[in-house]
Amino acid sequence: MSEKKRGAAIAALKRALGKAVLTGDSLPPRAGIDNARLVFHPSAYIRVENEEQVAKVLLLANKHGVPLTLRGAGSATTGSASPSENGWVLDLTALDSIRIDATAGMAHVGAGATTENINIAAEKEGWFYPPDPSSKKHSTIGGNLATNAGGLRGAKYGVTRDYVFALEGFLPTGERVRWGAPLRKFASGFNVRDLWIGSEGALGVITSATLKLLPKPEARQTFLFGFTSDAQALRAAISVMKARLVPAIMEFMDRQTVDCALRRRREKGPETNRLLKKVTGAFKKAPALLLIELDGRAAVVREDRKHLLELFAKFHGVSARDEAEAESLWEIRRTCSQAMFQMGDTKLNEDIVVPISSYLELLRYTLELKKETGLATPTFGHAADGNFHVHLMYNHGDPAQCRAAERGVKLLMEKVVDLGGAITGEHGIGLAKSPFLKLQHNKAEIEAMLAIKRALDPKDILNPGKMFTPFAMWKHPRDYATVMPWDKH
């Protein structure tokens, strides 16, 4: 687009939306960056306050042929909220309404409502919203819907898609639509609702949703167990599933991850977390860890606790006596992401999924990659559903390490697909996974997806350049200096 056409489009946008439009020096720091830390430069940033403004933005973007990137908090890790084609950024965070129907067990929410605030509102009425991505304090439900976010409780409770009755919003061409209804049964027409969920903002703009709630669990119990090896920890996790125990959460942290997390904690001073020290202090070297939570009816939790402790009798572990102690056990898990930067200044974070039968093979392969590439491969994730976060840590200023990261991530993705797994379980494709889409899907499957995209977004306005266009993430510098709200750990 020429400068003259770009200027005319922005002038029309400002006439239509006034102060909601920011350009030039008034662009906020977050305008061109999400949690993938790639930096782009949009020509306009639009913070809408109502749905009518959303329609106006879409109509103008279509008229002028301007790429439009949708945005919530920006906690996406694959670059799906990055304005890679420049153009305009549409910020939906102000659409943050929350209304709980305590009788029906439903939450009527705006796209900008955070996952945590939805759950807080639900719990006041004796309900809860199960999906819980690690970024839940900051991530918006619109972003969760766009990526079909999972979270720590995925194995027991499922993912975002499992809790959606209806979506409202706009087609890329500006027409208002509603998919589904606030009803427990709805079988009218094609299920476009589920097409929008996980479409990463490429098929429409979600402005509100009706969500399914569950009764708030009566009790919960949190445990932390240490293991001498990654394999021992994963075998223990598999034994939990074989015993027909269904924990709400079962988080695995490999020894590489725990080692850097403990070092980061020591840098801040002597370890003051009594329970954490009791577990990790029992080992000469950093152990692998399992963080497990049981929830449900109090009597069921007591019975499951007894069964779990019998199953893990030979392992070092602690259990929380109250909410404060439970929170203290989570400290080590929350330290992991930032601690990894001791191993390199840049990361490739791959949220792959493998069958239970392939857990040990996956972990063996991450260590093989570590030897072959010379890069750290710290791995943690959701051991109850096979969704592991494998990281390749490297220094971007070192060309040899960049090449090693490129080779490593390609080999990892090939291995995951070979194991019958998925290249993403909850983060989506975005920019980061785009080179590997053809590993997961054949030509006919990809063409079917593109046909849907062309039908709903004929001018390719929404989030172009993502998913289907390969992007070499490892070649691009990142901005880790910009502090995001979730960086405090």
What is the strand and helix layout of this fold?
Layout (H helix, E strand, L loop, with lengths): L2 H15 L3 E2 L21 E4 L3 H14 L3 E4 L16 E4 L6 E4 L4 E5 L4 H9 L3 E2 L12 H7 L6 H4 L6 E7 L5 E5 L11 H5 L8 E8 L1 E2 L3 E9 L2 H13 L6 E5 L1 H13 L6 H7 L7 E9 L1 H14 L4 E4 L3 H7 L1 H9 L6 E8 L5 H15 L5 E4 L4 E8 L4 H20 L18 H4 L2 H14 L33
Parallel strand pairs: 2-4, 3-4
Antiparallel strand pairs: 1-2, 5-6, 6-10, 7-11, 8-9, 8-10, 12-14, 12-15, 13-14, 13-17, 16-18, 17-18
Helix pairs in contact: 1-2, 7-13, 8-12, 13-14
Shape descriptor: globular
Looking at the overall shape, the CATH architecture of the domain at 218-336 is 2-Layer Sandwich
Describe the biggest sheet?
7 strands, antiparallel
Helix content estimate: 25-40%
User: Any idea what the radius of gyration is?
Assistant: 23 Å
| Portion in beta strands | 15-25%
Total count of helical runs of at least 4 residues: 16
Order of strands across the widest beta sheet? 15-12-14-13-17-18-16
Mean pLDDT: 95
Please mark out the parts with pLDDT under 50 across 5 or more consecutive residues, or reply none: none
- Let me know the number of strands: 18
At the fold tier of CATH, the topology name of the domain at 218-336 is: Alpha-Beta Plaits
